[in-house]
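Lecture notes, unit on protein representations.

Consider one protein chain, 168 amino acids long.
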Amino acid sequence: MRAAMAHRANGHPPPAPPEVTAAVTAAVAEHGDAAGALIPVLSAVNRRLGYLPPAALAEVSRRLGMPASRVYGVARFYTLLSTEPRGRHLVQFCENAPCHVVGGRRVWEALRQALGLAPGETSADGRFTLITTSCIGACAVGPVVVIDDEVHGNLTPDQVEALLARYA
């Protein structure tokens, strides 16, 4: 605690926890420390930690030599990155027009009802986080839901509960 207070007093953030340092070190080793590596580094840290806590953003800023505001701005801009803890399974629903016109609204309502979540919320058991996203490039098989890295297309509302049960 005293070390953290000393760092704040001199204008420097406290040292990052070991798991954060390890995640950032591994990401920088894999992707490099150039400005163009920012998104891949943030993605790798997000995958490893499950989200991007403030200490991770500060460490990425330090390691890549860029302003914290830029790192934070990028982390907040992309929906696949999160500055808040998420559930074990990320459920992404495509809300673009092609999915919408082939029944997306009904699938969306079925997802919300089955999970009991509003957009951006995480289930109390920590199993699911529900978000909407722009086009994921699978318009030919809409409506589309991506769970973790698996694309599920041509969904109907009556398929939603069975789909979610696969991730129990």
